[in-house]
Amino acid sequence: MAVAADWAGVISRHHDEIIKGWLQQLRDDGTLQTGRIKDAELEGECRRMLALVGPELAHGAAHSPLGGELRDMLVALSRSRALQGFTPSETSNFVLGLKLPLFGAIGVDYPDQADVIAGATIEATRKLDRLALLTIESFQKSREEVIIRQQREIAELSTPVVKLWDGILALPLIGTLDSERTQVVMENMLQSIVEHSAEIAIIDITGVPTVDTLVAQHLLKTVAAARLMGADCIVSGIRPQIAQTMVHLGVELNVISKASLADALALALQRIGKRVVDTAGATAAPVEFLR
User: Fold this and answer.
1) What does the alpha-carbon distance between residue 278 and residue 153 come to, in Å, rounded to a whole number?
2) Contact 184, 221 (CB under 8 A)
3) Which residue, of 36, 44, 55, 78, is most buried by count of CB atoms within 10 Å of its CB?
4) Which of 261, 266, 259, 214 minimizes the C-alpha distance to 241?
5) In CATH, what is the architecture of 7-151?
6) Domain segments of the chain: what residues?
7) CATH no. of 162-290
8) Where residue 66 falls among pLDDT bands split at 50, 70, 90?
């Protein structure tokens, strides 16, 4: 019967050497060169993980469920690394860097027992590889959460609702409209209609690269929602190429449209009983809105 390595004893006897070798391994990999983490902080993480991984190695059974505290620690560490800007490789190397110091320690304690060293090395490799995979999975999940949050923030920032005049709002759209962004557009516009008691909302699509059947459906949903709130909509910024595409596709917006935002604003002012008057004569450029 093969003798199993006493991982608890090995780690206890060589604790400081393992930590030192582990930190050196991480330094060689460039973890500290980025400046995103301090030496003392990294050492603290190493000591905490070694205290948790010791019982896992002593427990044996490389495919046994990972301990809750160790798993929680690595998940939290991976999320922190993702926010700090580390790469997946740098994150997983934190775990993998423990291998060589552990293998060195087991070799010192069992110098003439190749079977024990081989068995312990295979067991530790499987355990640490599983832990490294856990860090990559947690890192990727955290990065995806960050990307989704950033996309939502960008969508909100890219759909501002501007008050052009009392009772008139403008919603300039830039980029492609999809279902999620349409929802943000609709929520922002409806909230602004309520806040400003707006009668007319101008949706300017000058910055929308293409308008197909799907985009038209999204626009119609936004127009319909505004009408339910008591505001009429005017679509502006339909370029000649987009107009031709819409005709070829048979797309009908069923809403008043204007070529430019200026034309749409002039129509909106007319609808609420306002007019644009040149107060400086026919040769002067400034234009003033008179109430």
Assistant:
1) 41
2) no
3) 78
4) 259
5) Orthogonal Bundle (1.10)
6) 7-151, 162-290
7) 3.30.750.24
8) low
